[in-house]
Amino acid sequence: MRAGRSVSGMSLVVDEMPDLGITRLSRWIFNCYVLRSGDGAVVVDAGLPRVAGDLAAALGRAGTLHAVVATHGHSDHVAGAAELAARHRAPIWLPEATLAYLDGAKPRTPTLGRAASIWPTMIDQPLDRRGVAGFVSGAWVAGYGTPAGMRWTGPPPGGGLVDGQSVPGAPEWTVVTANGHTDDSVALWNPTTRTLLSGDAVLTVRGQAWHTPEIVDAASAAATRKRLEELPVAHLLPGHGRPVHAADTVWAQQRR
């Protein structure tokens, strides 16, 4: 299976994976994915506030935007969701646990020390000033990760994502609970193409999978690791880091 090709222009990386029906758009370490399904597409992790502009060309080719989905509520995964959804009149779906944060529940988030531990991933992709600026400004637009808790300025989400559910608008994908990095983390699994969209549960560095050390709960992270490694993943698409493709499984070689 052809993994695809990457095109870099104005620091925006566009990684086309036609055999998987996926396009990755990345600024620095912030990945956003377009999953083509049926007569349209689903966007996953529209994290930067201005990501709608970056997605215009890819969505123009894909057709109708069926839904905007996030793997968890951190601002770098949801700050662009409301604008994108409004522009295309598409529903937003967040993990069910994230919905509780919209109602005032206090989310746990990794400490700055934990966040700094993923520095190998931070230096593994080209630095992009718009990506950095979007990360900083996005924290005040939507999502959590600051002492302010969960922010949300867009319309109410269409619903919550739960374990085992088909992804709205892309029924070939299944929601998998992937807590540890946060208490509301999910991953998305496509058994037909053996593709895992891992959110922040699994990062990548230098062509290797890396179960994130940036966690809030060690027991949940260990359970997530065990569950995900039971999946025969040939294509790993992380929230941060470059995609990893393997003839057999991406777990055969991973960062320890």
Automatic annotation (TrEMBL):
Species of provenance: Mycobacterium terramassiliense
Domain of life: Bacteria
Occurrences of domain Metallo-beta-lactamase (ranges): 29-240
Identification of the protein by name: Glyoxylase or a related metal-dependent hydrolase, beta-lactamase superfamily II
InterPro entries linked to this entry: Metallo-B-lactamas, NDM-1-like, RibonucZ/Hydroxyglut_hydro
Keywords: Hydrolase
Example GO molecular function: hydrolase activity
